Amino acid sequence: MVGHLPALRTRGLGPPGPTVPPDPMIPACQDREALMTRVTRHFIKVDGRLVHYRRAGQGPVLLALHQSPRDSAELLPLMQAMAPFATVIAPDNPGFGLSDPLPPGPATVDRFADGVDRLMDALGLTSAAFYGFHTGACIANRFAVLYPHRVSGLVVDGFMLMEEPERADLLANYLPAFHPQWDGGHLAWAWHRIRDQGIFFPWYRRDPSARLSRPKPDLTRIHDQIMEFLRAGDSYRTGYEAALSYRPAADMATLTVPALLFAAQDDPLHRYLSKLPPLPCGVTTGTAPNRTAAWDVVTGFLRGHLPVEPAPAVPDFTARGVTDGIAWVAGGQGAPCLRLHDLGGAGSLLPPPSAGAWLAPDLPGMGDSEAVADPGDLAAMADAIAGLLTTRGWTGGEVEGWGYGAAVASLLARRHPGLATRLALHSGITEPPLDLHPVEGGGHLLAAWQQARDSHLFAPGNGVLPGPNRLQAETWYWLKAAPILDRAWKALGAGG
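Structure tokens predicted for AB hydrolase-1 domain-containing protein:
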């Protein structure tokens, strides 16, 4: 049976592309289980900067780079399609997803390309085939010019060959600063900024001449985009500015690696295909009717241009990771302590203890963890955390929890007594969380901002508000947890 993968949505320098029906992503000889390839998530330090990446498959390496302001999750369809043939590694670009931004400096594609070079060194990679989409296409194209000996083949998917007046206009207007404000007003601006991107192009030119022939933007899609935008924060400008400032034509004319310069016909950047300069031997162009059909062309090219060397093993990294869908952070030395956050939080938001070794997971369905257990079942949550501890070789120690995390900690101690030698339990939020499901107009964003504020103002403690940047991080995690908050709160009230 031929499997199907969802289409990638176009969300980059241009407006989002139309939704298209799924088409076969891999040849018919591949059965459906090939699409169920396990995708794992990892972290690594590169020049002191944290990089988060996804990995799937085995064999020679394909490096896949996403667009702005998204993260590597948008490349999951490509990862599943190519995993039967290659080890696909998809990092979050600097400043996006869970990757730290680049150090302060100019917003240039060269700096992003140099970051990929250093990432390859850290991962032990000699060479790879490259795929890049929009911003990722700019980075991949430039990387192939700067480091051709590390590139076995290249797909540049969506690029801009602008006249200078168009470039100047975009650079002057496309990238306003984004800074959290005490009153949450930045959230209303962000909502309409992202929504208008699906109505006008460019988004800031709100007049009939810029109106797109598209239906009303889909609420779920807007919410997904706003979450990506909010997580990047003001760092979104660096990736965008690097892409907008890049002039790829000269690099394309001098490529020395096999390359496919591609744009699907439903991609707003398709119009630039006709502006390409004369290309060297081995560099071809391509298109397809839509984003879904594009994958047949893209994956066909990539399969024919993979490197010879297989990927090395995943480098060990003990400070942060994702184990069986549960994200965690760890640190310190000495007596171990497990720390479990309250409802709607994340382990990374907890302050580290003053002494001892500590492990702070994101509870399933919250933080950056997947919903590997039902948050409405406290026993299942405790068992999931026990599974994490067992996998990580935990032999027992103190368990500290806040609110919902305290309830999970109590059940963990009862159900798995060998894992908890001592409990330290603290109160948490005292009122039911607000309904944070997406609503037209973006009101749920302000509700989440209020939820984050009230969690400090009206919870046990001194009622001191943190700064707006911290509140913004907490707001993001409240929004992430929206689908499970009601079930989790009811489970807490029922005592498990």
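The longest helix spans residues 109-123.
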